[in-house]
Amino acid sequence: xxxxxxxxxxxxxxxRRRMEAGLRSSDAFIVRRCQIVLASxxxxxxxxxxxxxxxSEQTVRKVVRAFNTQGVVGxxxxxxxxxxxxxxxxxxGAERLQALLHQSxxxxxxxTSLWTLxxxxxxxxxxxxxxxxxxxxxxxxxxxxxxxxxxxxKRWITxxxxxxxxxxxxxxx
Length: 173
What we know:
The protein has nine helices and no strands. By secondary structure, it is mostly helical. The protein is rod-shaped.
């Protein structure tokens, strides 16, 4: 697929000064962004700029578009954190999840006695803790908010065998 030519808009004297100053930055991210803008302004096409700077063509397109719409501000490093985070289990739901994990999965009709995050997500939906089916990664932060590590949660399980405590060796779980 061939993309149409994409170049940065003409730089103002202030923008050019900031781009040239950015070439001397100690942050490689800023240096590369400034190199892309200046090379594009000099008339180099996207593939050529990508080869010169050592990045992908998509990165060049992204930088050029950001500069054309936002100016110098668009060249700053953004956050990698999601723009929104949504808590799937509230405080009450997390406490109910903790109580659920203190029971055996066999109580809920599953053939195993060990909880997995996927199984916890499935049972939490079936028991109405969550309004929709969630991923295992929605269960993990709920446990973290309760200050419970998942490794510890796995060790809560006990066998349905009445002689379990007698058979269990000391120090093993």
